[in-house]
Amino acid sequence: MQCSHLAALFALAAAAAACLLPGAAAAGRGLAGSQPLLATTKPWDDKKPEYQKPLIGILAQACHYCPGRSYVAAGFVKWIEAAGARAVPIRYYHSEAELHRLFKSVNGIIFPGGLTDLWMDSPYVVAARKLWTWAKEANDAGDVFPIHGTCLGFQLLHILEANVSFTELLVDTDSVAHASTLDFEEAAQESIMFGTMTQELRRKLSNPQLNISMENHMFGLPPAHYDKWPALRDNYNLLTTSKDRNGVVYVSSAEHKRYPFTATQWHPEKPPFEFGMTEIPHTLDAILVSQHLANQFVENARKSSHRPESPEQELADMIYNHKAWFTLKDSVMDPSYDGPDMTYFFDRPDDEAPANRLQSGQGADAAGRRSAASKSFAGQLATAGAQQSKGEAAVHLAYATELARYVEQVDFSVSLHRIFLDDEGQPRQKPTALEKEQAFALLIQVALRILAAPILAFDMADACLAALHRTISELTRPAEGHAAGGPQALLLARLSSTVLHALSGSGSCSHHLNAVLRCIESMTSTPQTAALTQLTFAALEHHTASLDPGVTAIDLQRLCSLLELHASYRQIQLSGMQGEALSALQSTAQRAIRQLRALGPGSDAAFLQRRTGDIPMGAGRLREALPELREALRLATAEKAHAATIACCLSVSTLLMSGADGPRFSRQECWGCGRPSLTLRKCSLCHEAAYCSRECQTRHWREGGHKRDCAGRANNR
Length: 717
Hints:
The chain is an alpha/beta fold. Among the domains are: 55-170 and 220-325, Class I glutamine amidotransferase (GATase) domain (Rossmann fold, 3-Layer(aba) Sandwich); 392-600, no CATH class; 665-716, no CATH class. The chain is built from 30 helices and 16 strands. An eight-stranded mixed beta sheet has the order 4-1-5-6-12-11-10-8, with helices on both faces. The longest helix has 27 residues, at 549-575. Residues 1-40, 351-410, 448-458, 478-490, 506-553 and 663-667 have low confidence and may be disordered.
């Protein structure tokens, strides 16, 4: 009897809410009208707060066209500070060991909004997946660890849960700079975010005359996709929906059913702290909503048992070691600016913050191995030749930036799944020859990624791996016509086999990297080393658009020629061969250059010209190399290929300082000011003192004592 009375009361409350809350009646759903709602007990509700100084990690995003490698919008920092927490920046390019150390030091994590691409295999998503996985493991062990995702972070949490590319999960929405409403679903009454919110505030969130939720996104998640991907339906509660300017409905609030993971497509942090966009609401109600969500998130963070390793480490990790830049000033020059008012930039070239581990070289794992991103960043800052042998610095500097950019662009796993699995996730029967060519092209890209960044992991279904194994086996059978196709096909088969082992997780990444290099060695009879170029990446990336078998064959030839060229060039550099052996290596490298040029001119012109000069340079014929490298520098400058320009400058400078263009460049430091220079001119009298400018020479002659010294040297001669 009591149960029937309770049911009637809840039904009455729901009916009242449908009448009071705008949009609720139209949606056929509403919230109970209690004041406030009492959420259903969650596993972490009974745990008392343990830590009154919680630290919240904020995952920094890639920084494009700004003074740093990554950034965090200061609005998120202020948002958690208003609830009594402190912020710790987490760079996505940290080593796994450093990521885990920071995870054990913080009490919660924010995946913020931003503009970073969400390809499943991008370094940003890979880092987020690690943090997300560790958070689930901690909660399963009874250690409360909350995550909140805003805007892009909302989308990221759903991508991680569904394990689906954002190109399939999201749709276009017209919601940039759009103050809107929230239409509540029934599950909201038992949620972390809204379960204890007052009825009045919920009503205002739904009122289209107030519009106190701030949307600022180009993509959205349709509610129907919760049914399309069962992982979302089974693990997330859909709390609210919203509409864009064209009436497209998308999920605007959600939270995990088992973990304290919350997500808002809208921005609760903007109303109190962001004033650059005129559409942001700053009413008291908008501020109260923002404060409520921050309080709920930070209160769960207080229940985490994570602690910093030491008081000193705690201070070093916090964001206060970095300067907040007043980026709103950009709006004076750009009326369309919609970025944050204040921004923290990390790993600037002039950054002296104590927590800058990448620049100081501390971003390493327990074994001292540094991540590919860390190596690339350090390589760009390093002085030529400081820690690398001759030629290695030029190669590294030339490709580090392009490698880092490339590995963020392609979603391999999704593309391979489309080839080998149907919509139900079952193996497709007998892929066509064209589809096999597509798979081979993608496998080459995966192989290159293993070489470029062996720390990466790939999400592959067992059925897809099995299909890959069958396809690779077919590739090595002469009856299929592949293995008989020459060294290109054989190299592809060996690379594909290595990739399969790497994808299946057998052995360490470094082991598979060595296996790929051994494969290259067996094909070219050269040392176990190869530098992969921007040219190869650009050609292989083209496969994702055309995937034409003819293009595949051409690019395989290009790949083999590049590997042959690099291996020959490296052997010339490192082996110290003389006579006929050296001439044979030079002929091999020059033949590879001719083959690459025959495949078609294009953006590789500067690179091939540079290698034309690098070959005699490596053999010690400096005067022969100088004009070739000067021409390469001219081509790279004309093409605005900045990484190649840096490499050419290094090579030309090395030649000039080695005396390839006369003795006046034989000294590195100016005798007058002491600064290094690449254009020193010798004194015409003593032929020993060298100066970077006429002003330095005049000053040193008059005030530095060179007039006396020069006369003495001339007399001695």
